[in-house]
Fold this sequence. Notes:
Number of helices: 9
CATH superfamily: Zn-dependent exopeptidases
Strand order of the largest sheet: 1-3-2-4-7-5-6
Helix content: 25-40%
Radius of gyration: 23 Å
Strand content: 5-15%
CATH class: Alpha Beta
Largest sheet: 7 strands, mixed
CATH topology: Aminopeptidase
Structural class: alpha/beta
Mean pLDDT: 88
Order of helices and strands: HEEHEHHEEHHHEHEH
Number of strands: 7
Amino acid sequence: MKKLAPHSGSRRRTAASALFAVLLISSALSAASGPADRVLVRRGTLPIILTAPHGGREAIPGIAPRSNHSNDGAYGRWGGFHRSSDPNTDRLALGIAAEIRKLTGREPYLVVAKFLRTEIDANRPPELAFDDPAARPYYDDYHRSIRRFVDEIRRNYPAGVLIDVHGQVKDPEVIMRGTSNGRTVERLLKRAGAAAVTGPKGIYGQLEAHGFKIFPGNDVALSGHAEDAGFSGGYTVFTYGSHRSTGIDAVQLEFGSRYRRPAVVDQAARDAGRAVAAFYQTYLRSPPGR
């Protein structure tokens, strides 16, 4: 039998202890993960920003869940209090981005929440978005990233669009239009008219051409109150839309649950990506009336 070298057992114990220490440190670092680990942020090379606030799947260690404060009326303006996620909207946003990249050879900007909506609702103002103060850095990282990308597009491009990706179950068969009845696309309407939104080559017209049913229909005017009051556009498009001097054109896409089923969500993302890429070619690549 081969004899062990002197002190080899001690060396092995030391190596095992070192490995154990590394694992402990790794575990501690994981448990102490910060905002960058819970928000997917990707800088783009196209004047298109895709955001998805409600598809997150990852808990933030130590963050208390949100409580229902809807009785005080504060949520009324923003669509009420909800803990449930919009399943597969993160997958939709990533798939749309991938299809746009495939068709144009360039990257859209991405800001996708990976944290759970039970802890942070990123599509609400900060006073309603979370209860636990420890959640604030994650919320701020999400919105600082959007603000930075909006500002970059405003500096570098003649026009741009922010597309906020959501899910709804009220009508599983449709994408609900969300422009605050034209308000958040004010600049697009001024330079190109309603056709850029609901016309055959407009963003919702292209979605319809690629197989999606749109509500309200593209024959319905943007003015008035035609868009569903619960889905006409939330905090994100209200904050970054072009009705603000610091914004860009912004739309909310509320994908019905039919389009988010696991068996079809990737195809839905490809179809939506083709629609957005076609809209880009007509209204963003060389914007008419700029």
